[in-house]
Design goal:
With 144 residues, the chain is mainly alpha-helical. It has helices spanning 20-30, 34-41, 45-56, 68-77, 82-96, 102-125; strands at 5-9, 12-16.
């Protein structure tokens, strides 16, 4: 039995797995190690769509949708939103595909969620009651 990340979306089952062939295609497309593409996918829709496309397309997957962009849109329609949700999915795919361990995926998901929460807390603290930034407010930088 192949290791896959099972996900039920809109009443359909999807089996996601990033095969070695998929990893090689991502490495070639983005000119970086596949793990870097996985880490970037939370904030880069092109990387996420490519990752999903590769994870949906493997021999015997039986997935009803195999296009990464179409699957991304379906996830959004079903309630996925934000870097933490999409990053978490990318990390789960990486773990079931042998790129990282399940423990590492949990650690990455926790760190990403905390960074996103911190960024929003900082943004809220920088806004006065009316919701407009103060004239001397500094632009928000990525938490990491």
């Amino acid at each position: 039995m192949k290791r896959v990340y099972n996900l039920r979306v809109a009443g359909q089952d999807y089996r996601l797995r990033l095969t070695l062939g998929g990893q090689k295609r991502l490495k070639e497309r983005f000119s970086e190690e596949t793990l870097q593409t996985v880490l970037t996918a939370a904030e880069d829709s092109e990387c996420m769509a490519a990752l999903l496309g590769e994870a949906l397309n493997w021999e015997g997957s039986g997935n009803p949708i195999t296009d990464g962009e179409a699957f991304y849109d379906l996830l959004v329609d079903c309630g996925y939103a934000g870097q933490a949700a999409f990053g978490g999915l990318a990390f789960d795919i990486a773990a079931c595909s042998g790129l990282i361990s399940e423990g590492q995926a949990r650690t990455l998901k926790k760190a990403l969620a905390e960074a996103v929460d911190r960024a929003f807390q900082q943004a809220e603290q920088g806004l006065p009651q009316g919701g407009e930034p103060e004239a001397d407010a500094h632009p928000m930088t990525a938490a990491g």
